[in-house]
Amino acid sequence: MFPIFLLLPISIIMKKTSDQDIIHAIDCGNYMRYHSFNGIKYKSDRFFQGSSQFIDYNNKIEIIQIKETLDQDIFQTQRQGFNFFYQLPLNMNSSEIQNFILMLDFAELQYSNSNERIFEVYLGNKLIIANLDIYKEVGRETALTIEIHFQIQGQEAFYKDELLLGAINKKNELIIRLKAIKNQASIAGIILKFGGKQNNQSDVEERKIRRNPIKGIDGLKKLSDESLKIVEQEVKENQKDRDQNEDQEDKRIQIMEIKLLEFSKRLMTLIIQTPLGILLGSSFLLICLITLWELRENRKQENKNIGNIKDIKQD
After folding, report:
1. In terms of C-beta distances under 8 Å and separation of at least 24 residues, what long-range contacts does 168-174 make, across chains too?
2. Do both 38 and 178 map to the same domain?
3. What are phi and psi of 52, to 5 degrees?
4. Is the residue at 232 inside a domain?
5. 24 and 173 Cβ atoms separated by less than 8 Å
6. Where is the signal peptide (predicted)?
7. Residue 286's domain spans which residues?
8. What are the tens digits of pLDDT across the range 245-262?
9. H helical segments located in the chain
10. pTM greater than the 0.85 cutoff
């Protein structure tokens, strides 16, 4: 049995719908029109694309009686293929959200065991029915109708609040695709109809907000992590450059101080031999001491400013 969670809000029913609000009713595999028991006017098979073929079980020697339906002809003609699709014109372009119901008819008239015919049904690129085994669901020669409830707003279709990519093409056509897994996919009938009351605008806005929330959060988290790494790397590089500059500045000042002291010693040795030299030497020494003191004070002020900047950045 195909996974039930893929069919919510899909319901399996054994009845037909009225002719009211029907957009398309197609008798798949039938080249003639058909009027159903409850008055639905089915069109001949049309709007199909891909590799597929008509199958008419009415031409078989054995008379087949389909259970759970009054419309034998709908289920005894089918379209089968390995990968084909229908393009149903919508003939509408409203900005308001509209509910729709897609009814798909199936019947297994060829195989007498489960796991003989298995296929999938897509709306656009979205898998809606997975691993459908008609015989496993209802047995042989029994009608199976599956309802799919979805919404359309403008050029976008939604199923269970999820955007159906590729479900509506540029020609404003609904794309229904059948893909075989084992033997050929098969379909007997298609009905597309309006699904009743429209959702209000708040529902539309909520859907837009809820669309792919996990992906959005993951994307933001990834972006935040990458940004944080970049910032941390920049801080490390700036700190490294600052430390290197500080070390170079310290070395430069130390070299200047050493050279100045050596020069002062040599000069003092030369000028202390005369009274005038002693006076000049004392004055020069005083100037040197004042200069050294100013250099140290400037250095202290620079260190203090750098410390304040670091504290501000850390805050």
Report:
1. 168/90, 168/124, 169/87, 171/87, 171/89, 172/89, 172/90, 172/91, 172/92, 172/93, 173/47, 173/87, 173/88, 173/89, 173/90, 174/87, 174/88, 174/90, 174/102, 174/123
2. yes
3. -160, 175
4. no
5. no
6. 1-19
7. 237-314
8. 666 666 677 777 677 777
9. 72-76, 134-138, 201-210, 213-271, 275-314
10. no
Domain boundary among 146, 176, 211: 211
- Residue 16 to residue 130: CA distance in whole angstroms: 23
CATH number at residue 111: 2.60.120.430
Domain total of the chain: 2
Residue with tokens 């250099």: 295
Q: For the chain, which ranges sit under pLDDT 70?
A: 1-20, 60-61, 197-251, 257, 264, 267-268, 270-274, 276-277, 281, 304-315
Tokens describing residue 6: 């893929």
Rounded CA separation 218/21 (Å):
42
Handedness of CA 229, 233, 238, 240 (dihedral sign): positive
- 228 domain residue, yes or no: no
Same domain, yes or no: 190 and 269: no
Provide the total of helices (H) and of strands (E) in the chain, helices listed first: 5, 15
What separation in angstroms does the CA of 72 have from each of 61, 251, 280, 285, 287? 16, 100, 128, 121, 118
| Residue 148 sits in the same domain as residue 275 | no
Residues 243 and 179 in one domain: no
Q: What are the contacts of 128-131 at 24+ separation with CB within 8 A?
A: 128/6, 128/10, 128/159, 129/2, 129/6, 129/7, 129/10, 130/2, 130/3, 130/6, 131/2, 131/3, 131/181
Say if 94 falls within a structural domain: yes
User: Looking at the domain assignment, is residue 35 inside a domain?
Assistant: yes
User: What confidence score (pLDDT) does residue 231 get?
Assistant: 54
Identify the pLDDT of residue 234: 61
Of 84, 66, 68, 87, the residue nearest 120 (C-alpha):
84
Contact 40, 22 (CB under 8 A): yes
pLDDT of residue 63: 78
Q: 191 and 279, same structural domain? A: no
Does 155 share its domain with 262? Answer: no
